[in-house]
Predict the 3D structure of the following.
Amino acid sequence: MEEIKVGLLGFGTIGAGVVKLLKENSALLTEKTGTRISLKTIVDLDITTDRGVCTEGITLSRNADDVLTDPEISVVIELIGGYEPARSFALKAIGNGKHVVTANKALLAVHGEEIYAAAKKNNVEVLFEAAVGGGIPVLSAIKGNMAGNRFSTVLGIVNGTCNYILTRMTQEGADFAEVLKSAQELGYAEADPTFDIEGVDTAHKLCLLLSLCFGTKIDLKDVYSEGITSITSEDVDFAHTFGYRIKLLAIGKMDGGQIEARVHPTMIPIDYPLADVHGVFNAIRLTGDFVGPVMFYGRGAGMEATASAVVGDVVDLARNLCAGITRRCSPLGFLDDKVTTLPIKPIGEIVNKYYIRFQALDRPGVLARIAGALGARGISIASMLQSARSADEVPIVITTHDAREEDVRKALAEIDTFEVIRSKSTYIRIEDNLE
Amino acid sequence: MEEIKVGLLGFGTIGAGVVKLLKENSALLTEKTGTRISLKTIVDLDITTDRGVCTEGITLSRNADDVLTDPEISVVIELIGGYEPARSFALKAIGNGKHVVTANKALLAVHGEEIYAAAKKNNVEVLFEAAVGGGIPVLSAIKGNMAGNRFSTVLGIVNGTCNYILTRMTQEGADFAEVLKSAQELGYAEADPTFDIEGVDTAHKLCLLLSLCFGTKIDLKDVYSEGITSITSEDVDFAHTFGYRIKLLAIGKMDGGQIEARVHPTMIPIDYPLADVHGVFNAIRLTGDFVGPVMFYGRGAGMEATASAVVGDVVDLARNLCAGITRRCSPLGFLDDKVTTLPIKPIGEIVNKYYIRFQALDRPGVLARIAGALGARGISIASMLQSARSADEVPIVITTHDAREEDVRKALAEIDTFEVIRSKSTYIRIEDNLE
């Protein structure tokens, strides 16, 4: 095949990166695929702003149909983001027999089933390496060379904004609100950062990781999701005292046929490689029954890193097209009819160690009452720390041995009714028992 | 395709892992490939020893031809290791139209060109993910999703034995010889550890990484290689004082059309993720022009992890065979006729920072003479440390700014003639300027 024509929907930051890569490394791509990968048309509502990349020889259009109905275009790169019109465009591209490459985790986490089914029906491919971990080629590895493994655990630091904020809170002892403000000024957080800081973006990515690791459909609604907005600099300090760092983790585990699917701030030991993932970097750590623990680390976002993953998918497609085949591997790595729907373990039933922070009046017997309420629910204390008194109110911090989430919640609800407790008690799950 | 029949040459540790994986995860492999991957025949000189894995239904033979000439077998897994008879067997398999999966870095580093040419001629594939980094799927990622990048640097901790020894030297302050002895007793080092501790195994793996990153043939003879036998516990201590850890690194760099290809003990900053790769774990860090820095981390050796990579290659082949194609991607990721022979930069011309340790008599003017000899070669000192005197002889340790290797060698040759210098001065290269 002499040439493969590509259409691009969405000329934002990543789109500009893709244009740049396809232009600058065009010869390299030919050396690796044997074909010319040529970007024919870019569609965006704004086709006048200069993105700082050369678009010579590329048609710029405001009309998606200029890509979606162009019979010359065999590969559509969707970088619009969000649910609509991304969903309609992807389905139309598929319906017209075009392969789709997308970085859109929101789209796939919510409408993946519909899109994969349409792709199967139309015998085209849907590739989405860039949807998780930016440039890190983790999805390809799960579907590809690690395919022989049954995975037991996947942990991911997959949201650069949250990791940037937590890193600065850790390094500077700063508070969440002030770091968020600064991150927004520096462009590391959106003007409306809700999707990032509330863990929604991380939950989207977890859905994709779970589908690939376990060959299961995941309903985003079933993913427990908690953001980083309630993390205080005090928690960061106490974490350090206990030998932990706080990271927003996507956590997926296979537990006796049930799947744990949860996103929340997590304390991990300082000497775990994941604890050293700083700033906007991402990392994904998987455990397979044969490969054991494997970690992938790299830039989780940004114009160029994400473009690397997008173009990597285009290379994959180009090699298939040159070989005259399609769907050599299905979107989730499992044959479509082998994808099941595994049950999700309710969050109340998960078992973790916990860090719990109480804000209490400094009165005799407070500790005994807290310990008693925890003990009555079978929650056993591993360590305890009461800060030097600076006022009448003191933070009391404990870590627990393994406890059931539901029991912890009930115990805290009871403890919070004590008149000596001055504000709602908070807790952070601890993950320190990885193989 | 209903079934793909596989033959295994070499029933050692990794071979047993492959048998175990193909047996235990057989159903999973079918769910991911749509075909049954069935191990028909195992060949080994020893077919009586119990390897602790079930071989029911598999033919065991001492005759390689039972695999190499069996028309039913389409995939041959070569796990004999070493040059011969592995080379002859691989070539015969290829000549008979069989695809080859191998973990044999020595074979490919030395005879790769011959084997790739034979594979091209016979239209079969040669896959070797397990040859570098055990279970870590780094080669697939370079050839696959990261294919759009021009790489500038590849750094690897790819020899578990060396990393285990250096880790224990660091953690225990122990000497090389005593840790090596203990490593041998524990099975982490071979009875004859030469290939590992002299850096030869690491150089083999570097050859493969360079070929895939840069699309070039590499002659093993051109790879500068230096092992860890001369590292002392004193060096480990001084490294710590300067904020470094010592790792045996495979280093590949693209430098203006020339390639740096070298293996040597290297000081890296303690806060680099690579510095946290402990024990028998491996890690490979690459920098691509778009993806930026990416690191892969996992088990670099062992029965099960390596089997994961071997079977991953078999899955790749199975997907091709089911699609009715072959050589969708050539062995090095670049089309065969695009693989070039880039020049290797002579070791004398590389530029590094250096750690240098002198053993000198404690006399006035020694430092001035050392500094003078270095300065005369344009080598500028970044930091200096003279230990508290415990005898008439003292170690003097310096780190330099960027200097040319040849200049450092000449300066040390001169300094070593000074009568106050009591033994050969040693140096370790520093790598602390990574993007």
Notes: The mean pLDDT of chain B is 96. Chain B touches chain A through 64 residues (CB under 8 Å).
